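Question (not urgent): is this output format expected?
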Amino acid sequence: MASGAEDLSVVLSEISVRNVALIESATLRLSPGLNAVTGETGAGKTLLATALQLLLGGRARAEVVRAGEERAEMEGLFELPEGVLREILPAALGDLAEEVDPRDGLLLRRTITADGRSRCYVNGVSVGVRVLAALGERLVSYHGQREQARLADPAEQLALLDAFVGPEGLEALRERAELWRSVEEARRRLEEIRASGEARLRELDFLRYQIGEIEASGYSREEMERLLAERERLRNVTGLLEAAAAAAAALAPEEGGGAVEAVSAAASELERASRLDGDLGPLAERLAGASAELGDVLYELRAYLDELEANPERLEEVENRLAELRELERKYGEDVPGYLRRARERLSGLENADEETGRLEEWIFREERRLAELGEEISAARREAARHLAERVQENLKGLRLDRTLFRAELVPCEPGPSGNERVEFVIRPNPGEPELPVRRYASGGELSRIMLALRLAQREPDPSVTYIFDEVDAGIGGETATAVGSRLRELGGRCQVITITHLPQIASEASSHVVVSKEEVSGRTVTRIRRVEGEERRRELARMLSGRVDRVSLAHASNLLVGGGG
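Got this back:
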């Protein structure tokens, strides 16, 4: 038996289900590598896959809730490396990603009530069902008879093919995608310029008027502040005259005395005393300085009084000028100089539009030729890649006993885009003489599952951030084909975690983990049980799968399968 892929990037390590259809309560621990889910027909093997699909954003239906219960609950614990978490959490959760602590894994939980309403959580943080769906797209790839989820998607097919184009092809793809975005932006800019002919002329006239008005006004914030101060002074001239006159009188009244004379006298007395006691020298100097300062203040006060007078005409001039400046601020905002600067820049851009048009046309013409060259390089690389991919898938199909099935990757011309000039269509022909059909339209579920397995095995590096689920991959096969399918599933499990729901012992014997689903009656109600089996219990389950009964012969055959599968 395969030991599993210990170096897996992503592992669904545990899933718990309560009250989902016939499942009353079950907790299942899964392993890296290949996990097989088996059980008798009708026991409810697909309920696990159904629960997982619901957990990952599938459509909620009230009938999934076990009869008589209020709600169904599903939990799944994914173990992901830090690099994968950093990539998928912000993309799926947006700002909520900061609230999720993924150090112990990614715990997804969903409840569905009996009336069909659901609640979703990621590590305890409530999220919308679309978040679970976005995570599900990244975490699980489901292949069943009714849902070939990802490989039928044209974008997924193209990505798989492009993994085979080689380093030069990948570089051409990267360069074309970047250049395409730049050319598209230039085209939009050119269209804006061309479409704005009359509007551009009107905007030119308007900008010229605005710029002329602001420049003619001579607006400056400094003038505004200076005028405001002057207006305040003119409005309060009487009070200012009274206060200044009173201060001057206190310093030097007309009839002797006053602060100037008193301080001057005190300074003279202290200067004489300092001749007798040198310790008074510093005080005498300070008092002399105060006397001189008071004299300067008195001089300036008298000059202020001589200049200050009521001037109603000047006040009116100041008010009118302030009104002009405020009107400019009302029209253009408080930052009038900033508006003027931006208007000049916009005017310059519009006046140079003809020059910009010519420059853009020349640049676009040159880069479109480069896009065409890159498109040809990509097409050539893809033709070679399609051949290599088909060869590898064809080889895998032989190993899966689909020798007569033909696979090819058909390049279909399409409208040129950032990824090239073609799309890819995976085409199969089930048998010689039958028509070829696109994979997305192929209806044979079990056979298509095996084709999907062949494609996954053909990938140079299967996506390590995905758990693959194969439901009914064994439909309509047995014998050597079943053995081949089991071997290839184990091979894929060596690189990624794989869960297969199977009724074939040849496949189940290859698994590193074996889960059995059974149905029984408890207190008059049918209950589905899910348990992991090992050792003798697993051998007995394989014996039951082989012959429908457990006896000496089937047990011996089961032992041989386990030995042959490595178990």
